[in-house]
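Feature request, filed as a ticket because there's no other form

It would be nice if the structure record came with a short human-readable summary line next to the tokens. Right now we just get the raw output. Example of a typical job, pasted below so the devs can see what we mean:
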Amino acid sequence: MELLEISLEGNEQSLLQIYQDVYAATPDRIPSAEELHWRYGGNPYPVRIWVGRDGEKIVGLRPIAIKDIKIGEAVYPALHMLNIMVHPAYQGKGLFRSLMEKAWGMHGQEGVIAFTFPNENSIKAYRRWKDWFQLADLPLFIRMVPPKNFGETKSLVRFFAGYGAAAARCLRGIKPKAHGLTIQRVDEIDDGIEALWQRNKHFFDFIIPRDKQYLTWRYVTRPDVQYMIYKAVADGATVGFLVARTRMMFDMHLGLIVDFFADNNDSTILAGMLEQAVADLIAQGVHAIGLQFIGPESLKEALWDNGLFAVPKKMLPREFIMYARSGLKKVEGIRLSDFQRMFLTWGDNDAV
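Raw output as currently delivered:
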């Protein structure tokens, strides 16, 4: 068994094979060759690919993307620890930890912080490792869509939850609306969205920059997923964007609100974008609509006005936790505990 860093070029089939070995029971997690290049091709971020190899076979994978993150008033390099995996026949033999330690020893100095969103298979390891700590516990907001007939998936739960959410929206009374706001479906990230980020980035002291380059890579160029991109316009200026998609998860056809950003954290702008996206997702036949975010409390008004309510932790299908550790690249004056104006969405996890 050897641990080594490899390039993507020339190793595509071996990397795809370990995805197939690990995710045989959940084939929607297996990327196409084009998706693999999107994830690990190094554009716009450098990616270090560490593997465990037994002979010619890759049996463990630990990729790391060197991304940007805004902490305080400056932008720093950060290590996004992407989906680690170990071949089923090699699990329980210490390969997971060995890959983590090797990759960290080689690249820990390239970032001021490392972060990851572990799945249900790897989260137990992060809980055990003292160097890693829970940075954020992302709540899940759900709106159930009532079934058209009781033969549909989870029809009884959707019936009561869906009409219960509708009743709750009615009890909230008349929803405020942003005047002169139009919602447009677009297929690119334009300079207006870039200007929106530049105007509003000062509101947050811990956020992955929502600039044009990042958003284009994340939501326009991804080959395996067709995202629905919306922007809100008022008085000729872009004042919000929102990204949605559909996906089969937890045995349901789900609509996911993946990312969003609103000028001045205005809940009426977010509410307008959500109203349009929710209507479009329901028209596509989704059973429920989900959203995750940590950010200004004021924005939750928009979620409630559109029937999205937080799921109690005991009822969550799984945990959605962001783990982090301090990087070996030292910068004076950075203490994560000092930064409380955090903004995170589902989109910060590249798997969604």
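Something like this underneath would help us a lot:
The radius of gyration is 21 Å.
The chain has a mean pLDDT of 89.
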